[in-house]
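Design request, tokens follow.
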């Protein structure tokens, strides 16, 4: 179980330091099924990185209101753990779960009309 929990921590805190969720899951699903309770196995199978984050939150390792770092920073989806595409420098699209993130570029403060 510790091996899995270590991956979860790294995938949440520094996604680029570990393989994407789908690669890790393909290699470790049997281990997860043997070592975690059925409810957690199902949670991880269907919720992916979100499920891993929930397990760590239940263990008290992340606060309940924890929000993953921006995919613009990590290059990975904070919900499913897959690598994302950055489109035009202002949008992130996850090709696996369809999650999106938008970077808003506003007018500088103190400009006309301020």
């Amino acid at each position: 179980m510790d091996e899995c929990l270590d991956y979860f921590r790294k995938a949440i805190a520094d996604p680029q330091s570990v393989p994407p969720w789908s690669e890790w899951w393909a290699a470790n699903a049997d281990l997860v099924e043997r070592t975690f309770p059925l409810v957690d196995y199902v949670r991880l199978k269907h919720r992916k990185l979100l499920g891993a984050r929930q397990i760590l939150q239940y263990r008290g390792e992340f606060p309940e209101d924890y929000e993953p770092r921006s995919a613009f920073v990590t290059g990975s989806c904070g919900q499913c753990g897959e690598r994302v595409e950055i489109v035009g420098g202002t949008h992130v699209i996850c090709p696996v779960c369809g999650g999106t993130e938008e970077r808003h570029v506003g007018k500088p403060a103190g400009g006309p009309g301020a």
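Comment from the thread starter after seeing the answer: thanks! The radius of gyration is 17 Å.
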